[in-house]
Design brief:
This protein is an all-alpha fold. It contains six helices and no strands.
């Protein structure tokens, strides 16, 4: 699984552009639009799954780094880990929990991962919304056909 996590993933803009194109239903090609529904479902399910895996990986990275940052800010991080990260020992004595919380909230390493988690969460949510739209696509196509029949007097 870890090899797949390094692959280039589509950006939110790319996925939104794809959906802008894929969501169009040509009223003169309703049969093709109906056939395409399965293809689009597969496409957006795959995108959602890839970004879900990336999100899970980022959550694991965040949790591991959070643990090491907690040890760092409380002066308990091993010398080996300090060397691994290239960090100097933390000399400030944090006496209260809210002091520690403020360091976590402003920590650039944690915030960088948190921003990536947010980004991939939004992509997963967008793909979920697309999949819901695709679930109603056949109904929409049926409605278009019924409307056209009614409009033509039949």
């Amino acid at each position: 699984m870890s090899g797949k996590l390094t692959e280039k993933l589509e950006t939110m803009d790319e996925i939104m552009d794809m959906w802008d194109k894929d969501s169009k239903i040509d009223p003169t090609e309703l049969t093709q639009a109906s056939i395409d529904t399965g293809k689009f479902h597969s496409k957006y399910m795959r995108l959602m799954t890839k970004h879900s895996f990336r999100l899970k990986s980022l959550e694991t990275q965040y949790n591991n780094l959070y643990k090491d940052k907690r040890l760092y800010y409380t002066g308990k991080l091993s010398k080996e880990k300090l060397t691994k990260y290239g960090w100097e020992p933390f000399d400030y004595n944090l006496g209260m929990k809210n002091e520690l919380d403020s360091f976590f909230k402003s920590d650039s390493d944690l915030n960088e991962i948190d921003e990536k988690k947010f980004y991939h969460t939004k992509i997963v949510e967008f793909c979920e919304a697309v999949l819901k739209q695709l679930a109603t696509r056949s109904y929409n196509i049926t409605n278009i056909i019924a409307f056209e029949r009614m409009r033509m007097g039949g």
